Amino acid sequence: MAKPVHMRQMPQIAHVDVNCFYASAERAFDPSLEGRPLVVLSNNDGCAVTRSPEAKALGIATGEPWFKLAPRAKEWGLVAKSSNYELYGDISSRVMELLGRYSAWLEVYSIDEAFLGLKGTPDELLSLGRRMKEAVRRHVGVPVCVGIAPTKTLAKLCNKWAKNNPAFGGVCLWESVPADVRQGLMSRLPVDEIWGIAGRLTKRLNVLGIFTVQDLVRADPVMIRDKFSVVLMRTVLELRGTPCIPMEKSASAATS
């Protein structure tokens, strides 16, 4: 008699991030804002710090002064909200409490994003990611995307793909994306889209011919360590699937 086939259950990390957090929180509080271009303004209503997808489609940039936007607000149907940090803190707490029900390991990384430690087969992980996404939307009222991968850096990358590519439906599992598709996506993504890489570091990488995520994946980790830092070397290793950045906090949570 043939032995049953057991699917792999490899430890994975999920990165869950609320889309356009401040704007989404405002919509959770006032559903009439759904579908309308919306910006949330900085302290003293100086400039736009968060834009809804509809506002982004109008070409409104982060940091754009409100006095420049105000004359065309009526024409665009643009709604502006003053920052409400009490509301955002409450929404964040509710999101994190809900996510904690899905894993014994929850690391709250910022007000709108968290890492979770997960384990399961690819089908189980995708199903869990979709359940988390649906639960946060249903019970808290804000949209999230979920990236699941063997490392934190790859989980953040998968989340970015889930957010920007409708084909993923808001949930991207690294292992479920064919290798050639992953390479294509990484070849088109600028290196400064990687977690922790920006500004002057990007320019220094460009000098070495490293312009895309795929370029960084192919770089020699030792060379990266010698020319930059151990931290950036860890990023390269994480992009190759080797966990180098551990979960920082354990939190007991109820089962979902």
Summarize the structure.
The protein is an alpha/beta fold and 256 residues long. It has helices at 21-29, 53-57, 66-76, 85-99, 122-139, 152-164, 179-188, 199-207, 213-218, 221-227, 230-239; strands at residues 10-18, 38-41, 48-51, 79-82, 106-110, 113-120, 144-149, 171-173. It comes from Pseudarthrobacter defluvii.
Which spans have pLDDT < 50 for at least 5 consecutive residues?
1-7, 250-256
Radius of gyration, taken over Cα atoms and rounded to an integer in Å? 20 Å
How many beta-strand elements?
8
The helix tally amounts to 11
Q: Give the domain tally.
A: 3
Strand residues, percent: 15-25%
Structural class: alpha/beta
Helix coverage percent: 40-55%
Protein name: Nucleotidyltransferase/DNA polymerase involved in DNA repair
Organism: Pseudarthrobacter defluvii
InterPro entries: DNA/RNA_pol_sf, DNA_polymerase-Y, Rev_trsase/Diguanyl_cyclase, UmuC
Family: Belongs to the DNA polymerase type-Y family.
General description of the model:
It is a single chain. The protein has eleven helices and eight strands. The chain has helices at residues 21-29, 53-57, 66-76, 85-99, 122-139, 152-164, 179-188, 199-207, 213-218, 221-227, 230-239, and strands at residues 10-18, 38-41, 48-51, 79-82, 106-110, 113-120, 144-149, 171-173. A hairpin with a 2-residue loop joins strand 5 (106-110) and strand 6. Helix 10 runs antiparallel to helix 11 (230-239). The protein is globular. The two termini are 37 Å apart. The model is unreliable at 1-7 and 250-256 (pLDDT under 50). Residues 13-198 form the UmuC domain. Belongs to the DNA polymerase type-Y family. This is Nucleotidyltransferase/DNA polymerase involved in DNA repair. Pfam families: IMS.
